[in-house]
Amino acid sequence: MHDTARGIVELARPGNCVAAAVLTGTGAFVAGIDAAVGPTAVAMVVTAVAVAAGNAINDYFDREIDAINRPDRPIPRGAVSPRGALAVSAGWFALAVALAALLPPLSIVIAAVNLVALVTYTTVFKGTPGLGNVLVSYLVGSTFLFGGAAVGRPTAVVVLALLAGLSTFVREVIKDVEDIAGDRKEGLSTLPIAIGERRALWLAAVALGVAVAVSPVPYLTGTFGRIYLVGVAAADAVMLFACYESFDDPATAQRRFKYGTFLATVAFVAGRAVVLV
Ligand SMILES: CC(C)=CCC/C(C)=C/CC/C(C)=C/CC/C(C)=C/COC[C@H](O)COP(=O)(O)O
Ligand SMILES: CC(C)=CCC/C(C)=C/CC/C(C)=C/CC/C(C)=C/COP(=O)(O)OP(=O)(O)O
Ligand SMILES: [Mg+2]
């Protein structure tokens, strides 16, 4: 029983759930959390539960592949049965739907689109070159819009959504380069397999260049205070270095890149806080 409970928690990948919920909360905070603390809290829980549901159904559909490449995952190691994982995912999806119904109309629309995307990601989008990366990027970017919509001001965080989406695309491509051997063995057609590793990494570098060029905009529009520039410059530097590093060592680069995105999230919060105090 102990390993089953641990397995169910692992299916959710709680670190991703918390990180995504923080992004939703950041979106609400930047947009104007004073307007609606309750809906913000609900939106953060919906985000966390939706990510848990999406990760669990991903493991269900990936169970044969993971048995070869990730035997330590809960289903291949026998901690949770495939049917059990599907039931847990369905329960989390149902909970996300029930809670999303408490939110404003636009939030409900975003949640509905995202939940369908999460159910179809693995079976429809993941194996199509670049499409899976674009969908995950949209999902991460949408957390800011979801938080902004919860407080009735989604347009206030469109730039943040774009930055999060672009940077997620970059990291997903680097992760696909890291996983290229296993993905090729599984017969997956990821972007690096379809167009080549270096071309895929150059495409990611261009996307990062756009994100870095756009990153001062929240300061220039007055949304964030000057401290944001210091924080986002550090985050940009980490992500740019990770992107350069990815051509030689994608495994280290994608982990370093993730720290850069966390640094950027802190810069968003600090940048807004100094304007509000
Ligand atoms: C240029 C600039 C200022 C960019 C903004 C960067 C920003 C705030 C990005 C947000 C990225 C973030 C913190 C995402 C966490 C939420 C999440 C669940 C991401 C999706 O991850 C999917 C990935 O495949 C999971 O893999 P792993 O992390 O290895 O478990
Ligand atoms: C705002 C709302 C309602 C939802 C947002 C949902 C979010 C932010 C999702 C983020 C992306 C995410 C974590 C999706 C889950 C599915 C996924 C991409 C799993 C990873 O799948 P693989 O590509 O198989 O990689 P692994 O090797 O890690 O399994
Ligand atoms: Mg998987």
TrEMBL record:
Annotated TM spans: 92-119, 131-150, 156-174, 200-221, 227-247, 259-276
Compartment(s) where it occurs, according to its Swiss-Prot or TrEMBL record: Cell membrane
Biological process annotations from GO: glycerophospholipid biosynthetic process
Membrane topology according to the record: Multi-pass membrane protein
Keyword terms, alphabetized: Cell membrane, Lipid biosynthesis, Lipid metabolism, Magnesium, Membrane, Phospholipid biosynthesis, Phospholipid metabolism, Transferase, Transmembrane, Transmembrane helix
Gene Ontology, cellular component aspect: plasma membrane
EC number assigned by the record: 2.5.1.42
Pathway(s): Membrane lipid metabolism; glycerophospholipid metabolism
HAMAP family xref list: DGGGP_synth
Name recorded for this polypeptide: Digeranylgeranylglyceryl phosphate synthase
Species this protein is from: Halorubrum laminariae
